[in-house]
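SEQUENCE-TO-STRUCTURE ENTRY
===========================

Backbone structure tokens: a row of integers, each naming the local backbone shape at its residue.

Task: work out the structure tokens from the sequence, keeping to the layout shown below.
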Amino acid sequence: MTGSGASLVAIYTAPSGGAPMEQQGSVVLVEGLGIVGDRYALHTGTWSDPRWHDQELTLFASEVAEAIGIEPYQARRNLITRGIDLENLIGVRFRIGGALMTGVRVCAPCRYIQQINGIAGLTKALGGAHGGLRVHIIEGSMIRVGDALELVGVEEEAAPATGAAPAV
């Protein structure tokens, strides 16, 4: 099942908190950990304290970046998607490439994003569901820019059998 043509349009990592985001063509996701070489998998991110257990992976919608006038990397999220409302993925299993994951919660922005980018009002613009999505990796795999985002276990409405009489 696809998320209505949803796909991965960019991947970003940073080796440590505050380091510039680096665009990647592909990355390896490790279950329960994050992206190999990224600040949160390395426990060097700004929010790497163990009490924040859901720091594995973040998604961000390219449509939000376009709507508020920023480049996607400025949101400091890992995976940039197109074609799906990320808030609808909370509690839902989905695949990107061979990796299986589930949406955990909205990724609310902090003032740090605004400070590091020097864009007044960015924290407010990324508020609510616009900040992205925190994700738990269930099964790791290599993923690539261009991979489809596919919902798992979501049944489409069954089409009537050929030749069946229409319901009245």
